[in-house]
Amino acid sequence: MDIEAIKAKIDKEIESIDSSEALTAFRLKYLGRKGLIAELTKGIANLPSDQRASFGQEVNALKSKIISLITEKEKRLGSVKEESFARVDITLPGISRQLGHLHPLTQTINEICEIFSRLGFSIVEGPEIETEYNNFTALNIPLEHPSRDVFDTFYLKDKNKFLLRSHTSPVQIRVMKSRKPPLAVVVPGRVYRPDAVDASHSFMFHQIEGFLVDKGIRFSDLKGSLEVFAKAIFGEEIKMRFRPHFFPFTEPSAEVDISCIICKAKGCSVCGRKGWLEILGSGMIHPEVFKQVGYNPKIYSGFAFGMGVERIAMLKYGIDDIRLFFENDLRFLKQF
Ligand code: DAH
Questions:
Q1: Could you report the per-residue pLDDT of 84-112, keeping only the tens digit for each?
Q2: Ligand 1 contact via 209 beta carbon (within 6 Å)
Q3: Which end of the chain is more exposed for a tag (fewer CB within 10 A), N or C?
């Protein structure tokens, strides 16, 4: 057999080997018990005696060559593995966990409640399903009042009893019936009205109700408290205006405006060129409401106010469409 031809064949073969399985097969083929080297070694005995020694040396040389080829290949296959491991760049930044945050409306509710907490108000919540009595009757809202209409309030099946509260004022009734004055409470929560949804209306929105009852509470207490609130949330430089208004549950009643924070009261599209922005309704609690909860209006007096959270947040952040709060678009929410 031509040893040189075998060497050439082996060189080619080893080059094409690219896996440890193929290398094992190669090893068996040449170095195995029935492999080529074993066969050649066996054949030595059949040679004429003068050729045995030199052929034996050639076979040995071939064997060494095969062994060194295998060793080299082993190393190379191993280092490929090492290399692919080394390709993981451990200095790259990791995949960071995305952190969420509170919804802008929740942030606004928290901010408003914190301001009133500092003034000594406690925070109370009430149910979103209310009785017609708490939502209207006890608040001195007459039977013929338009807000009682099915177009302005969501009634539940048993129309004469339950509804989705249309404001947070009914919590006044719940709190006053279960506690005695003095009390100062703010009530954040969802309210519902069957309004067609547009840039400034939503069938569900949030309000914060506030009220304070004690002996000798006057309109000036209401003004002072609301001034502290409005300046804390909109800035010390704003001006305030109390505009006479009507609410069935307060007397006298006022709507409160702040000077436009966009145009600094010069008149712009946000304030409708008026220079003023309405932020809430308020007044002195009506004696009829006190009678409904069993307080003597000759002994106690108090003030109440109610504001829309969306409206406050929209003014504060310059948001022009209420629907943005409810669409869960992260491009919007991430800005807060
Ligand atoms: N409940 C009123 C509304 O939803 C807001 C309001 C006005 C609440 C005057 C009050 C108040 O407590 O005194 O429009």
A1: 666 788 888 888 888 899 999 999 999 99
A2: yes
A3: N
CB atoms within 10 A of CB 169: 30
For residues 311 and 52, what is the distance between their CA atoms, to the nearest angstrom? 106
> E strand or H helix at 86, and its extent?
helix 49-86
Band (52; pLDDT cuts 50, 70, 90): confident
Query: What mean pLDDT value characterizes the chain?
Result: 93
Could you tell me if the CB of 247 is within 6 A of ligand 1? yes
CATH superfamily for 104-333 is: Bira Bifunctional Protein; Domain 2 (3.30.930.10)
CA dihedral (197, 201, 206, 210) in degrees, to 10, reads -150
C-alpha radius of gyration, the chain, whole number:
43
Atom of ligand 1 nearest to the CA of 168: 1
Residues 6+ apart with CB under 8 A from 242: 223, 254, 255, 256, 282
Sign of CA pseudo-dihedral 198, 199, 204, 207: negative
Tell me the pLDDT tens digit for each residue of 214-270: 999 999 999 999 999 999 999 999 999 999 999 999 999 999 999 999 898 898 988
Query: Which of 145, 285, 305 has most ligand 1 atoms within 8 Å of CB, for mutation?
Result: 305
By most ligand atoms within 8 Å of CB, the mutation choice from 152, 163, 169 for ligand 1 is 169
Q: Is 153 in the pocket of ligand 1 (CB under 6 A)?
A: no
Do residues 323 and 202 touch, judged by C-beta distance below 8 A? yes
State the pTM of this model.
0.74
- Kindly report the protein residue whose alpha carbon is nearest to atom 2 of ligand 1: 306
When pLDDT is averaged across residues 279-300 and rounded to a whole number, the result is 98
For ligand 1, what atom is nearest to the CA of residue 210?
12
In the predicted structure, residue 132 carries a pLDDT above the cut 70: yes
DSSP 328: -
What are the residue boundaries of the structural domains of the chain, listed by start? 3-86, 104-333
Across the range 117-136, mean pLDDT stands at 97
As a whole-number percent, the residues of the chain with pLDDT over 70 amount to: 97
